[in-house]
Structures are given as structure tokens and as C-alpha cells.
Amino acid sequence: MLVRVTAGGHVGWGECEAAPLPSIAAFVCPMSHGVCRPVGASVLGETIDGPEDIRRIAAKVEYDSMDLLQAAHTLSGVEMALWDLLGHARDEPVWRLLGYRASHPKRPYASLLFGDTPQATLQQGIAARSAGYSAVKFGWGPIGRGSTRDDADHFAAAREGLGADSILLVDVGQIWGEDVEAAAARIPALEASHATWLEEPFHTSALDAYGALSRRSAMVKLAGGEGAHNFAMAQHLIDYGGVGFIQIDTGRIGGIGPARRVADYAVAKGVTFVNHSFTSHLALSASLQPFAGLADHRLCEFPFQPKSLSVDLVAAPLQRDGNGEIAAPDAPGLGIRIDPAGMRDYLIDVEIKVGGRTLYATPKPG
Amino acid sequence: MLVRVTAGGHVGWGECEAAPLPSIAAFVCPMSHGVCRPVGASVLGETIDGPEDIRRIAAKVEYDSMDLLQAAHTLSGVEMALWDLLGHARDEPVWRLLGYRASHPKRPYASLLFGDTPQATLQQGIAARSAGYSAVKFGWGPIGRGSTRDDADHFAAAREGLGADSILLVDVGQIWGEDVEAAAARIPALEASHATWLEEPFHTSALDAYGALSRRSAMVKLAGGEGAHNFAMAQHLIDYGGVGFIQIDTGRIGGIGPARRVADYAVAKGVTFVNHSFTSHLALSASLQPFAGLADHRLCEFPFQPKSLSVDLVAAPLQRDGNGEIAAPDAPGLGIRIDPAGMRDYLIDVEIKVGGRTLYATPKPG
User: Fold this and answer.
1) B35, B37, B70: best to mutate for the A interface, most A CBs within 10 A
2) Nearest to residue B81, comparing CAs of B4, B1, B10, B7?
3) Residue A80 near residue A74 (C-beta atoms within 8 A)
4) Whole-angstrom distance between the N-terminal and C-terminal Cα of chain B?
5) B20, B67, B352: residue with CB nearest A32
6) What is the average pLDDT value for chain B, to the nearest integer?
7) Do residues B315 and B280 touch, judged by C-beta distance below 8 A?
8) Chain center to CA of B157
9) Interchain proximity B28–A21, CB inside 8 Å
10) How many Cβ pairs closer than 8 A exist between chain A and B?
11) What is the per-residue pLDDT across B303-331, written as a single tens digit (0 to 9) for each?
12) Using 50, 70 and 90 to split pLDDT, how confident is the model at B34?
């Protein structure tokens, strides 16, 4: 869901990594309780002169929409758009508005699926290496569905395919629920394959299981956090879950401000911040801003196989540099030009009426 | 938001403690992502023969709507309605379907606001005592806004008004954010006033602060949890936050099933379960079911000053017994008869169209 904000002759764009219809409803709904106010009531008509105004608006949403669950997802795109708008108004990139002096290049990793067999995984690894990727994430597929030995064969095949020098990341999509021993049984093979992280071994909320597993290996760190829809959820994954990599989607956590707060917290706790991003380059740029200035937080997620929608709505996508790396752009706002013509074919008309009054109708893209 | 479910010639009712429009949208929205499916897709057309079907449907929503934030609030009312319907189909009260053998009476507490002055608080306490309440919760008002001494005067006045034998509960509505020392400074006065619990000293997510404060007093327990929208949030308040009372709203946590799971967990951890409920007697009955069979979990929240809407939509409200206590009714389902005529004046027409197709229009109450 794209969000467009206008103020003072400027335009800002943001993207919610969320279900569009409930997110729109959370913006326009009539107040039902004291702390179930619509997100729009905290945003529309507000003054925006600087970053402190964005924080003030976000705090207002957090309080006035406390019992409106969807609010955090709605706010994420709005908050992002406010930073973009402010950047255009000030002619500054968002990362500079966040207090960073430089936007350090990040090493994008390719995301692949494990093959059905170790041989297929090996071929995937070889192909990724040939395509020039020096960091690769293998995910899902058969892992956790067969024996520990089967999984070990896949990890070894992935490493063999990539070669010794590449970064190998493993994502198992919450396959073990809360079962620490099932996950721990795979640790020796992950260590032998020099995997850098094991992503989402458990449900996002299984903090105890994360914590217990994190103490089983000094080499393989845990990664998680993409589902965090507020700062505290990320903080708890760090403090109680013991993750070594905290993965934040700015389109879910409430936007760039809370994501930056997680980045600061990660630095203080010796944890590495990584963006979570798999849609457009607008969302990608927004996801890079919170840790753009952290030179030591090097890895970044990059949407390698975007859907046509994600491609068509951006006029000028981010480009990888000569080293194959990307960086939050040194351009005003999020540095991404949205192409209204490109999104025209994808726009879906939504109309919401309450008590006979139209609360929402999809605006024209132009 | 009321939910009506029909199946096999039976009808069940539930109530979401949630913003209606986003909750409706979460039920009907088109699928946007693999795990952003509408709640309705996991519910409509499913078979419901027993409690295991309700758990299966809830698990399907949890997985298929994983990234749809509002889903938990929407599901809460639907799940409740499914239990009500199943109870009618089986001619059994929900608490019996949950495995309890008896519905033990609970001691309802009156909720009052602290007065502006200690003298006003004293008068409130005297009035509550005269009205026959043996458990009273004082909340909000000036607490935490003045000095520690001012607050101590209010706590002492409340106790003096209630007399020595009543249960005194204190609710401060998250006033101290994450400030453990500010809260801890009030503990001696709470102990001197024999307060049973201190409710919501901090933000729901401030688990560290809860945990630190819980270790400051053996006498005054912490209470919290009304904002929990899944089992894990309640579990974390118990495990990391050290609460002595876990307060669960079945209209937010995903319904009666997860609330029952919290009750079991509370028993295992020596924590007391308390319902959170402030709207209709439909929601009240649903909130009592998860701990109906726990004889030692005695306190319950009871809406003393319901709005006319809450009164009008129920044909026969729960009655306090000769001891002034209430219990989950020994009647089929939730044991609450909904009065469609009573709700007619409050119904608000909602219409949601997507791509020209009407996805939702408010049904007739009859």
C-alpha cells in the first residue's frame, strides 16, 4: 500500500508492508473508543517543520490509537512519507535528517530457496556464485521437514556451491515453533558450514526459545525481527531472545523513526541491524535509512526478484555500485522518484461508506 | 463490534473489543500477501463439530493472517461467537466445553476514579463501602502527577474510606512509562494501605520495568495484560514482567481459547487470572469463561457503569447472587440472550467496495 502525503507544496511517498484495506480503514475509521481514534486524526492538518514533528505525530498515533491494532502498520507508510516530504522540503536525504554524516554502502545478499535435494541446493549455490553474489541467503524448502542429517547435507551443499569466501545465511521460516532441541540439533552442521546466521527458527514471540538457542552456539548467531510492529518487540528479541542480527521492516515497525531507535539499541547491545525489504525500491530506500550511517552494519536485504508492480511504480531504482553494493541515496528525501503513470494499471478502487458518508475513495494517481 | 455466526441452524454471538471498521476490513479484505489473507477465508464454510474445530480455525487465522495486524482483534469476536454457537448446539455452557466442572462465583470489584483531593478520595471510598462493595479499584486521577507524599495521602484516604476489610486495588494507567524508580517510590505507601495490586504502572511492553518493580515488594503485586493480543504477550508479562495478576480481555487476545491458555499458564506459574471487561454482559460472560472453573481466582472486573448500548443489546443481563457475586452462567453457550430490537438504534451502516464489488454491507439485525 502506497501512501502519498502533501504539505507546503511538497509531496512525500511511503509504503506500508501491510494489508491495504484494513490499513486504509485504520486511517479513516470513526472513533469507537477513547484510544481507538483513526490514524488520520493524528496526522491530517498537523504542522511539519522538522524531525521532532514527525516524532510528535507518531507519539500521538501511539497514544490515541493505542487499542487500534492495525495503526502501527498504517503509520509505517505515513511516517515514511513524512520523512520523504521533509527531506524534499529541506533538500536533504533522510539519513542526514536522522543525524548520520554519511550513507555507507551495504552488501546486498541474494535470497534463494533450498533445493529439493542437496544436489539441487549445490547447483543453486554455484549459480549464485557465478552471478557474482558474495552473500546468499538460503531459505525454507525441506529444512526441518526431514532428518538432522538431511539438513546437514543441504547446509554443506550450500557452502560447497558458494565457495569458502561467501557469506552463507540460513532462513527456516519459523519451522520449529518453540522446539529448542529440534533447532539445536542443526547447530553443529550450521557451524561446520560456517553459516553466519540462522533466521527465524521459532515463532516471533517465542522469546524463551530464541534465548535458549542463542546460548547453544558462539559461532552461529540468530536473526529475527521482521514481524516487529513496535520498538519493544525488537528490543525483547535482543534482550530476551539473544539475537545477533535484528531484522527490521520500516513498513511494519511504525516507520523510520522507531527503526532508527532499534539501530541505536542494536549498537548499544553489540547486535547488528539488518533491513527487511522485499517489495519496491521505495520501501528498500526507507529500510536503508535507519542504519545508513552505521559503517559496520554491512549486510542488507535486497529484492532480487521483484514483482512487476514493484518495478513499474519507481521511475529510477537504486543502482548497485562497482562493488555490487548499494547505499541509501544521496538525494533529497528517500531519493526515489515515484512514477504515477507506472502505477495506474495496478490501482484498485476502494470506497468506504459509514452511515451513508463516504470516508474514503481511492484518489487519482496523477 | 458485535459478531453473529450461524451454522447448522444455530446462532452464536461474540464481541470484539476493537475498532469496528478496521476489524470488518480484516474480515473481508482481498488477499494482498501470502500471509495477509482475510480472516473470513479461514472461517466461512468451515465445519464446526467441537472445540477442536475452533482451535483449528484459530490456528488457520494465526498462520494465514500472520502479517495482518488487526486479525487478532477480529478473530476475538468470531472465536467467542463460535464457542457460543457450539454451546447452543450441544446445550452446554462454554465453561463446560472448556473442561471445567463448575462455574465458581467471582467477587466483582467496583472501579472508581481517585478524587482530585485525598478528602474526595475518602468520600469515594465511603460511598463504595456504603453501596456494599467489598472490593474496589481506584484509578487514574492525580496519581503520579504530584509528589510521592500526595499519592500516599490518596492511598491512605482510599483505605480509610473502604475500611480495613475491603480489597483495595490501584490502577495508574501506564503513568510512569518505563520509570521504575518513580513507581517504586510509591510502594511503601501502597504497602501501608494494604493495596492488593498496582495495575499498569508502565507501558504494556515495558517488560524490564515491570520485572524490576515486581522485585521491590513482596506484598503489593503488579497487575497488567489487558492489551495482550496473543498468548505470548501475557506469557511475557508473567515470565519477564513478574505480574501477580494477569488481566485478559477475551475480546482482544483472540477469544476464549487463548484466554483459557493464559489461565492454565497462570495456574502453573502461581499467578492469578482476572478478566478485563467494561462493555456488555455478552463480553462479560465471555471474559468469565476462561477462569470459571478456577475456584481460587476470585476477583473479577464488572462493568458498573455501562453505556446504554451495552445495556440495550442484552435481553437478560447477568445477576449478582445473594453474596453480591457473579458467575459465568449455567446455560447453553455464553448464556446471554442478545436482543436484536435493542441494538437497532445503534447499528451503523457500513459499506465497503473494492474494485467495484461490494465486499461488505451491514446486515439487518433481525
Assistant:
1) B70
2) B4
3) no
4) 16
5) B20
6) 95
7) no
8) 28
9) yes
10) 139
11) 877 889 888 999 989 999 999 899 999 99
12) confident
**pLDDT-flagged residues of chain A (< 70):** 366
Contact B207 A240 (CB under 8 A): yes
Report B:15-74 residues touching A (Cβ under 8 A). Answer: 17-22, 24-26, 28-30, 32-33, 36, 66-70, 72-73
Instruction: Residue A242: name the closest of A220, A212, A265 by CA.
Output: A212
- CB distance from B341 to chain A under 8 Å? no
How crowded is the C-beta side of A349, counted as CA atoms within 13 Å? 7
Answer yes or no: are the C-beta atoms of B80 and B286 closer than 8 Å: yes
Residue of chain B whose alpha carbon sits nearest to that of A34? B19
A155 DSSP 8-state letter: H
* Residue B30 per-residue DSSP state: P
Closest partner CB to B21 (pick from A20, A29, A69): A29
DSSP category for residue A364: P
Q: Which residues of chain A lie closer than 8 angstroms to B21, CB-CB?
A: 25-26, 28-30, 352, 354, 359
By Cβ distance, the residue of B21, B208, B353 closest to A354 is B21
Q: Which whole-number Å values give the CA distances from B150 to A160, A287, B120, B124, B168, in the listed order?
A: 70, 47, 13, 17, 18
- Is the CB of A19 less than 8 angstroms away from the CB of B67? yes
Give CA–CA dist A293/A272, Å, rounded: 13
E strand or H helix at A120, and its extent? Answer: helix A118-130
User: What was the pLDDT predicted at B132?
Assistant: 84
Which helix (H) or strand (E) element contains residue B196? Answer: strand B195-199
Q: Using the 8-state DSSP alphabet, how is residue A249 labeled?
A: -
With the C-alpha atoms ordered A66, A69, A75, A76, is the resulting torsion angle positive or negative? positive
Q: What are B327's three cell numbers?
A: 458467575
The residue type of B275 is N
Of B26, B67, B207, the CB nearest to A236: B207
Rounded to 5°, the CA angle A10-A15-A20 comes to 120
Give the percent of chain B with pLDDT over 70.
Answer: 100
Q: Using one digit for the tens of pLDDT, what is the confidence trace for B152-183?
A: 999 999 999 999 999 999 999 999 999 999 99
ipTM, two decimals, is: 0.95
- The residue assigned the cell 506469557 is B235
Scan for cell 501491510, then name that residue: A18
Is the per-residue pLDDT at B140 higher than 90?
Answer: no
Is the Cα torsion angle A88, A90, A92, A93 positive or negative in sign? negative
* B96: CB partners within 8 A, 6+ apart: none
CA B337 to chain A, closest CA, distance in angstroms equals 24
- Give chain B positions within 8 Å (CB) of A21: 25, 28-30, 352, 354, 359
- HSE-CB at A113 with a 13 A cutoff on CA atoms is 7
CA B16 – CA B1 distance, rounded (Å):
5
Report the relative pairing of strands B107-113 and B135-139 from DSSP bridges: parallel
Beta-ladder partners of B246: B224, B273
Q: Does A234 touch chain B (CB under 8 A)?
A: no
Strand, coil or helix: B195: strand
Residues A47-96 pLDDT 10s: 999 999 999 999 999 999 999 999 999 999 999 999 999 999 999 999 99
